[in-house]
Recover the amino acids of this structure.
């Protein structure tokens, strides 16, 4: 297991290198530049600004300089957020994104597994059909559709919850964005759990447990739940990464001070270093989460062995 984890960690390096290279040149090839909105500056001042950020050098040279700084853990300064480095902006915004995404994935996992298991135990009943209808609706509606509807109903019409802003003192500002992020993943997890649980309940070891007269509660919790969670665990790695990175749209809609909002503003302003920093940070996070999920998969299923 340890050697497998070390090999996977080593493989992160070339994968991350490809991502950095692709993102760097795609950003530079996109129309516009970080200082296009400052065309009123005298040409000599604009030239000095570009020279200060190495933007006057050939693209390949800029790429080499960026890799050199990145190897030292330096994401560089932000072109638009004056007096802030990209590392400082990520450190400022990530706690908010983590708080939103972590809350959403925990709620989606707990409720999704519970609802999916209950539907599997009542297969083809009215409850089962309602769960599947909810799951298909949640999968079909992306969070950038759900979020404005929630803000319109609960924030504007009913005036129950704030529709923008952030406060660390209470959870009222978290409710709408967390619900908007939770619903699609809750639907996915419920559907995966239901299908997997139905398959496990018809397996031989469950029939043997029932034949021995074990209580249904014990059969579900000790014998059926763990193997039924394997598809959910496989989905959990990209789901966690997706729910954190998916907060990009949610943070922009609800005007939350997370990394996602910085990323959107950076892309609009052609803030090259900020966008690159967020891309590198998210790519690293996704790859590490996928590795952890693979290791958890082996812990849940004793038949899985990583050599």
């Amino acid at each position: 297991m340890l050697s497998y984890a070390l090999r996977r960690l080593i493989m992160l390096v070339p994968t991350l290198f490809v991502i950095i290279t692709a993102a760097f040149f795609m950003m530079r090839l996109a129309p516009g530049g970080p200082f296009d909105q400052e065309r009123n500056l005298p040409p000599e001042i604009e030239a000095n600004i570009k020279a200060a950020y190495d933007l006057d050098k050939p693209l390949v040279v800029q790429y080499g300089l960026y890799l050199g700084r990145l190897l030292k853990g330096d994401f560089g300064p932000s072109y638009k957020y004056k007096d802030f480095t990209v590392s400082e902006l990520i450190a400022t915004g990530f706690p908010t994104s983590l708080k939103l995404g972590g809350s959403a994935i925990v709620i989606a996992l707990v409720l999704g597994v519970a609802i999916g298991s209950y539907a599997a135990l009542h297969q083809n009943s009215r409850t089962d059909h309602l769960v599947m209808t909810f799951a298909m609706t949640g999968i079909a509606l992306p969070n950038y559709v759900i979020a404005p509807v929630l803000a319109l109903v609960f924030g504007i019409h009913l005036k129950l919850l704030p529709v923008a802003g952030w406060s660390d003192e209470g959870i009222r500002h978290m409710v709408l964005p967390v619900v908007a992020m939770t619903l699609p993943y809750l639907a996915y997890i419920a559907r995966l759990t239901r299908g997997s649980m139905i398959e496990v309940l018809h397996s031989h070891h469950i029939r043997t447990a029932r034949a021995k007269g074990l209580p249904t509660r014990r059969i579900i919790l000790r014998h059926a739940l763990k193997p039924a969670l394997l598809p959910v665990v496989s989905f959990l790695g990209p789901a966690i990464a997706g729910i954190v990175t998916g907060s990009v749209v949610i943070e922009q809609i609800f005007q939350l001070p997370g990394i996602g909002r910085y990323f959107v503003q950076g892309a609009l302003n052609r803030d090259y270093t900020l966008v690159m920093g967020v891309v590198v940070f998210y790519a690293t996070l996704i790859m590490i989460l996928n590795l952890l999920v693979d290791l958890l998969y082996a812990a849940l299923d004793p038949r899985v062995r990583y050599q």
Observations:
- The domain at 91-258 is CATH 1.10.3720.10 (MetI-like fold).
- The two ends are 7 Å apart (CA to CA).
